[in-house]
Design goal:
With about 270 residues, this protein is α+β, with helices and mostly antiparallel strands. It is built from 11 helices and 4 strands; from the N terminus they run H-H-H-H-H-H-H-H-H-E-E-E-H-E-H.
Length: about 270
């Protein structure tokens, strides 16, 4: 199995886990507010549907992708909100069917990209495998919002490794979204997988170091938990600063989450 096939397999599994949760909701639950201000459960799935449609289009029809994303270049927030309106008249069943369809399209489209080619994306072109990792990041973040709304706990497995890699690759996004200059100094990341394996990236002798459990690290970089509620630690002033601004997505950081905002979830 290639690296891309592995990521797409895990992307599918993560999507199916979230699918099982929302498929059993009644219509009123689709309209519950989530921790993302102004976003309902419906909005979260609509956003994922749009993002996956973008990814499938980027892989299969780059010109169409450029046309779809042109509004985002002038006003990112407005483009995101406009995308949500595309689905506002869908019933939950219709929206769920669309989300399932575009998830399958992504899994078909990315492997069809020629070897060594990149796929256009919102900031820079990406290798298909990196774009698939971005999909895992999106599902993790918005799935967490839904899980928090419903008071349920998503299973976190070593599939998180793809998101950890993506967060390491996008370390600078937190700086760039705030108009800050990223440090030239490399960080050392030592992240412990759910299985107990340690995923290590960066120079072994780096002075700036970040470590902690993978699930907590992923909650940090998707800004779904405040750093005070996570077992992620830093060594070095710059690494400690990064824990305050870390984000694995480009665009506005949002308000994040407050310390102690969430009580323990139920399975």
């Amino acid at each position: 199995m290639t690296q891309l096939e592995t990521v797409l397999r895990d992307l599918t599994a993560e999507g199916e886990q979230l699918d099982r949760i929302v498929a059993g909701l009644d219509p009123d639950q689709w309209n519950l507010p989530t921790p993302a201000p102004g976003w309902t459960v419906r909005d979260q799935i609509a956003h994922l549907t749009f993002v996956f449609r973008l990814a499938a289009t980027a892989a299969s029809d780059p010109a169409a992708f450029e046309a779809m994303t042109a509004p985002a270049k002038g006003n990112f927030d407005a483009a995101v909100n406009a995308a949500l309106k595309m689905f506002e008249n869908d019933t939950p069943a219709e929206l769920l069917a669309k989300w399932r369809s575009v998830r399958a399209e992504v899994v078909e489209a990315l492997p069809a990209v020629p070897a060594d080619a990149t796929v256009p994306w919102l900031v820079n072109p990406l290798p298909p495998v990196v774009l698939a990792c971005a999909g895992i990041m999106e599902q993790f973040a918005h799935g967490q919002d839904i899980a928090d709304t419903l008071g349920v706990e998503l299973e976190r497995t070593d599939r998180l490794g793809h998101l950890v890699v993506f967060a390491v690759l996008t370390r600078d996004f937190g700086y760039l979204s705030r108009g800050l200059t990223p440090p030239a100094e490399q960080f050392r990341f030592e992240i412990t997988a759910p299985s107990g394996q340690v995923w290590a990236y960066g120079p072994e002798d780096a002075e700036q170091r970040v470590s902690g459990p993978a699930a907590d690290f992923c909650l940090l970089v998707t800004r779904r938990r405040h750093r005070d509620d996570l077992a992620v630690t830093a060594v070095g002033a710059e690494a400690d600063r990064w824990l305050d601004i870390a984000q694995a997505y480009r665009g506005p950081a949002g308000q994040g989450r407050r310390p102690g905002q969430f009580a323990p979830a139920r399975v």
